[in-house]
Amino acid sequence: MKRFVLVLMVLAMVAPLFAVGEKEVSGKVTLRVLHYADATTPGYSVEKKIWDDFRAANPDIELVYEELFNEPFHQKVEAYAAAGKLPDVMYMWPSGRSSTLYNKKLIKDLSPLLASTKGKYLPTTVVPQMGSIIGELPLTITNSHMVYLNTKLLAQLGLSEPKTYADLVAMVPVAKAAGIEVVLMAAKDDWVMQSCLFSMISGRVAGDKFIDDVLAGKAKFTDKPFVDALTVVANMVKDGVMPKNVLQISYGEGPALFAAGKCLMYIDGDWRAGAFITDPTTGKALISPTDQKNVKLTVFPAIPGEKISGSSSTIVGTGFGMNANIKSGSKEEAAAWKLISYMTSPAVAKQRLETGAFGRASWIGVTSDKLEPIQQANAAFSAAAGSYVLDGVLDAKVYTPINIGLQEIVLGIKTPAQVAADTQKAFEDWKANK
Amino acid sequence: MKSHTRPDERLRAYFLLVLPAVTIYFAVIAFPTIFSITLSLTDYSGGIVFGDRADWSFVGFKHYFRMFRDQYFWIAFKNNIWIMLMSLFIQIPLGFTLAYTIFRKLIVGREFFQTIIYMPTIISCIVVAVLWQTFFSPYGPITDFMRLFNPLWENNLANDPNLAILPVLFVMVWYYTGMYLIIFLANLQKIDSQILEAAQIDGANERQMLFNIILPALSGVVVVTAILAISGSLKSFDLIFAMTSGNPARRTSVLALYMYDNAFKGSPDYPLANAISTFMVAVSFALILVTKKLENRFGGKE
């Protein structure tokens, strides 16, 4: 009996080894995938379907799938990169937030693989990214700054769309009397104010050439243009245009506050349009399609001293990249490319467009008749010009002091000049250690 | 009883029995600690650590100097001190007072209160953080409640850099006091009831019994709770991470969060992160030693 039990136990331990062997013999390719997805957005079920469709259409590719959202995603990527256990295919940014992947050359240049898709993608999306390679195939082109304007509320208060910063200031007493704010943003996480507001201000007041000059050592963050840009944020708080307590609003809370009519203008990225539309699983929307017609998508009004008008901060969108360890010409590379190109394909892009994940697909000509009004507005939105998103052009060691500094300016514990000095010092330290 | 084993056999048996524990200790505690201290003295920036292709060199205490020069390190350290003081002088005394009140039957419905006070500790930390974050939000229940009395009341609780940590401290008291209550209650119940009854017959009042019998008997437990409070305070992370992420402007950050930000946010800075963790361990050891010395000097015998 004892021998029988022993044999059974040994068989139980050895059986999985045979199972693995069988999988390898069948030629099935296994890909580890790390995706960035917010399970609370209305389009999440569609997102899941996109992945399920790929699995169903490609039984020869097994996906070991993992998904995270917001900071935990970035932290996991850093941990994987440090441990040398990066997934085969991963969601990526074209620069800043994924700078480790580019700097340490952990991802493959997709340019050779893209040769076969010439003319299918918007030319502005398939351009060199950080490190002069195409590290990820962008799903879209992104406006990191967008103003969601409640035109109905504006009319109810007898106000009209602000054209200049002075118009905004003039709206403050009226809005306060109604118990609402002129501008709100969900700036509890420190990246939000830099990415969704200050990058646009910096682009208009200081200009991209100034940032290029700083990086080339021809200018300093402590120079007047950059300090002036920071001063705009300080003035917004001082003038009552934006309350200090935006720093207490978590990123998930922001759209609900705008939908509840707590402010006239809500500032976020264009991707946030997807938070307002109908959830296909529940049939409920944060703002109903009828009421979405009362939301205008626009950009911040003219700022005193700005060099360009009506601009937003823009960056090539996020997408999927491939682990540099995957050998060229291998079946793993073929499978990974199949997945990456599938994610930008017209069929998938159309579904993502319908969920509001983005406003404009990287694949030329993708559209849908199922879009809700706010999505149509997003698809039609075009800023007069685009400027750098700072965390897309600066290293994290340099933009982190800007992120924290903007919060310090809002709290009133540092002046724009002090934050500019902190940023310059961080830049010099980074340059010295580079 | 005379042993029938030879000395060399005993030695072999000793090593055989001790080896698994030593191996596990070395793998789980000693090696990571030594490795972390070593990394803090290098310029390692990810990649291969061992072998010919390893790409790092020793840079001395450079990262410790960087850490001490960084204003956000001192803000985080100050917040850790606040949390430690709150744990030592609010959570432990409050936990003891509640346990004493229940033990001495000074209130009715003891089991109800015991359950209610302990309940927060069994809720997930993230749930607690989100719950209180919503509660303290400028558009949350606390604002609505206060505006019932003053319609113009502004919720600027977290907008004062010096007070932003207060809501976090409040939640910590709410969350962890139940743990100290249970520790004290369990140990109070171990005190021989005959001693207390004898003291009562001899005419001792409640105050005398507390200071002359109960507290001296619990001095060891007080030290244990103090050690738990100190080490727990220095490694505070999850609740704050979920509740504030250390913001606004890192004013609610703590050392563990400061370390995490440097290790995993933006460009990872592993040497600096390891210097911070080494500092945390050193401070924790020093404070626990001070606590033990104080107990030896002033503590009673159980």
Structural overview:
The complex is a heterodimer of chains A (434) and B (302). Chain A is globular. Chain A has a five-stranded mixed β-sheet with strand order 2-1-3-11-4. A four-stranded mixed β-sheet of chain A has the order 7-8-6-9. A three-stranded mixed β-sheet of chain A has the order 5-10-12. Mean pLDDT of chain A is 90; it is low at 16-25. The longest helix of chain A is centred in the N-terminal third of the chain and has 24 residues, at 2-25. Chain A has helices at residues 2-25, 44-57, 71-83, 99-103, 111-114, 151-156, 165-177, 191-205, 208-215, 224-238, 254-259, 289-292, 331-344, 346-355, 373-380, 390-393, 396-411, 416-433, and strands spanning 29-36, 61-68, 89-92, 136-138, 141-143, 146-150, 181-184, 263-268, 295-298, 311-316, 319-322, 385-387. Chain A is an alpha/beta fold and 434 residues long. By secondary structure, chain B is mainly α. Chain B has one domain (71-298): Orthogonal Bundle (MetI-like fold), CATH 1.10.3720. Chain B has 13 helices and no strands. Chain B has helices at 7-40, 62-69, 71-103, 110-118, 125-136, 141-149, 166-188, 193-201, 206-217, 219-234, 238-243, 255-264, 270-298. In chain B, helix 4 crosses helix 7 (166-188). Chains A and B meet through helix 3, helix 4 and helix 17 of A and helix 12 of B.
Summarize the structure.
With 434 residues, chain A is α/β, with parallel strands linked by helices. Chain A has 18 helices and 12 strands. Helices cover 45% and strands 13% of the residues of chain A.
* Tally of distinct domains of chain A: 2
Order of helices and strands of chain A: HEHEHEHHEEEHHEHHHHEHEEEHHHEHHH
- Estimated structural class of chain B: mainly alpha
Order of helices and strands of chain B: HHHHHHHHHHHHH
Stated plainly, the CATH topology of the largest domain in chain A is called D-Maltodextrin-Binding Protein, domain 2
What is the CATH level 1 assignment of the largest domain in chain A? Answer: Alpha Beta
- Tally of DSSP β-strands of chain B: 0
